[in-house]
Specification:
The structure is a homodimer of 241-residue chains.
Chain A (H helix, E strand, L loop, with lengths): L8 E4 L8 H15 L7 H22 L6 H15 L9 H8 L11 H9 L4 E5 L3 H11 L5 E4 H4 L6 H10 L7 E5 L2 H9 L3 E5 L21 E3 L2 H7 L3
Helix pairs in contact in A: 1-2, 2-3, 3-4, 5-10
Chain lengths: 241, 241
């Protein structure tokens, strides 16, 4: 693609694209399940169920009419529901433990290429988050993992959750850019499709282990994205960084 | 001060505290005034008049009832007014030139100690902006100057301009912290006084050249702040960084 078609800012999905939520949440959930005496529950299944509630909740959020509520709070509500579904009454558990478990989403480890890839991309492009994670969550994660964001943007700044168009269009507007001057970088075809419908450029990063090796739920939404890479280092090379 | 009293996050005023607006705006305004054929106007006086409009505008903003409008837009309005006061009709000038002049506020140079001081402070504390500058402005400035913010916060995120209490309290809330867990770092007693009234901790950084060596307009508001330093490097040493 010609240099004139390069975006002015790269905006990143984070959960799954930059960090490996499933490995981190499974490991922490194994510990928490043991602490509440439920080591019989499979932590990977528990994690997948928790994440499934998130995906469903985000897709339905705009239509729900609910006032904007930060993801830390939603993650806690979804944890309580996931526990209830597993036969555990969260009201019987220590609130501080549940809060610490919820904040496992702030402690996700990056994919091995993420820090190097982001650092290289940052040399040429401003790199911002366009994530549904709230600012405090993203800030703690960035400091733990060394993710060198230029700015933390996304849901809390626009007060809209992806795939709501306001999340994408609001981020471009705040940056003072037209949608086509912003490129969403994401491992999820559903996210990229929503961004493209708003006029953003799109870069796909393949993360075959996001669901433990099983197909992603949005695999059928694949399109011919402007860029496609196997890692953030590969994306940096493809963008001339 | 005992370690237990240390803040959890350092939130920075930027204009005057981290960057030297007067030197940068005066130099750019000298060039722009020459380009519009008004090299007879003193660029430092022009700059001081522009900044005075800002200080007045911010102090009155909450009571004005105006919807939140980003600082890039307000800076442009204030430029037009400053030109009018100087006997120049901005309607006769090229709009692109006026926009470029306005964006001089994105191109301010840091004080000599700022990058090293912030980098050291960041080793121990999350460092965020708590500035009236909008996100796009702060993002461009940070990349030009190498200011290593963990997050860009402040007016646009809280939709309130300092010294409105909502700017300080909203920033703490978004961080998930109580006001006393956040320390405002600023060169301005007026800003620190407003932050203290909201319960934030306060750190004063002396910038005797902010007004070209003349006293700051809020000099009489000096108090005994929790910390007081001659530079951001000095502050880093006082906070054990």
């Amino acid at each position: 693609m010609a240099g004139s078609d390069l975006p002015k800012v790269l905006a990143f999905d984070v959960f799954g694209t930059v960090v490996d939520w499933r490995t981190s949440i499974t490991a922490e959930s194994a510990d928490f399940l043991a602490r509440i005496g439920r080591a019989d529950l499979d932590p990977a299944t528990f994690t997948d169920n928790w994440r499934r509630r998130y995906l469903t909740g985000m897709a339905a959020y705009a239509k729900s009419g609910r006032d904007f509520t930060i993801l830390d709070v939603l993650h806690r509500e979804m944890l309580d529901e996931t526990l209830t579904d597993a036969g555990v009454d969260p009201a019987t558990l220590d609130d501080a433990l549940l809060q610490h478990w919820t904040f496992a989403w702030r402690r996700l480890a990056p994919w091995p290429d993420s820090v190097e890839g982001l650092t290289r991309l940052k040399g040429r492009f401003p790199i911002v988050t366009l994530s549904n994670g709230n600012i405090a969550l993203m800030l703690e994660m960035a400091r733990r993992d060394g993710l060198p964001w230029d700015a933390i943007m996304g849901a809390e700044v626009t007060r809209a959750y992806k795939p709501d168009p306001r999340a994408y269009l609001g981020t471009a507007k705040i940056l003072g850019l037209s949608p086509q001057e912003v490129c969403l970088v994401a491992a999820h075809h559903s996210d990229l499709a929503a961004a493209r419908a708003c006029g953003l450029k799109t870069a796909f990063v393949s993360r075959p282990m996001e669901y433990g090796g099983r197909p992603a739920p949005d695999a059928k939404l694949a399109q011919d994205w402007e860029w496609s890479a196997d890692s953030l280092i590969d994306l940096a090379e493809k963008l001339g960084c």
